[in-house]
Amino acid sequence: MFNHIQNNDFASIVKGRRSVRHYDENFKISKEELNEMISEASLAPSSANMQPWRVVVVDTPEGKEKLRPLVRFNTVQNDTSSAMLLIFGDTESYLYAEEIYNTAVEEGKMPAEVRDRQLGTILSMYPTLPKELKIEVAKIDSSLFAMQLMLVARAHGYDTNPMAGFEVDQVAKAFDLDEERYAPVMIISIGKAKEEGHESVRLSSDKITFWR
Question: Where is the Nitroreductase domain (predicted)?
């Protein structure tokens, strides 16, 4: 894990990332490498380490045909990419809390007393949070994962495009997910660029930073 990232200059990965819309439709990323990239991206931070991101990998002709009418004006990415990655936030991620914290103790990454204390807080608080707050937390954390996934993909030599233009109210049901539990965050296309994305302008740091 991370061999691709360690062998690349991180600044060039960040500066070289482009939003690519047209991919080489004949190029296919293997399931094994997609899994590797998702695992690497999953090292992103999250609230209480609940890791609420969930990914639906759409890489079959049947899956893409199902997704096509739901991505509005993003059909080129759907039709030419190696895969479309549907990112969801799990509003019930706390159901994995015991598994996560028990594993941390088993692997010597956390003392048992710390686990017990944190689990007590998580399991007493998270289930009772208002639904709107659960969705907000899940979306923020899943967005951190999504950004990391795009950088990991770049380190592996692939291109991506994050999309918000899709039928948010239909995509979970279309891919057999519980609409009440899983909140759509974004869709990321991934593949080998056929047409390079354009370099875009960014505001300077003095325009976006407030020093106090």
Answer: 14-192
Domain boundaries, the chain: 20-194
Question: How many Å apart are CA 83 and CA 53, to the nearest integer?
Answer: 17
Q: What angle, 0 to 180 degrees and rounded to 10, lies between the N-to-C axes of helices 112-125 and 97-106?
A: 170
Contact residues for 53 (Cβ-Cβ < 8 A; gap 6+): 42, 44, 46, 87, 88, 89, 90, 141, 142, 145, 146, 185
What is the pLDDT of the chain when averaged over all its residues?
93
**Spatial distance between the Cα atoms of 54 and 91, rounded to a whole number of angstroms:** 10
Residue (of 209, 194, 202, 190) closest to 151 by Cα position: 190
Give the C-alpha separation, 208 to 159, whole Å.
Answer: 27
What length does the chain have? 212
Percent of the chain with pLDDT over 90: 85
- Burial class of residue 118 in the structure, from the number of CB atoms within 10 Å of its CB (0-12 exposed, 13-18 middle, 19+ buried): middle
* CATH 3.40.109.10 is right for the domain spanning 20-194: yes
Spatial contact of 23 and 29, defined as CB atoms under 8 Å apart: no
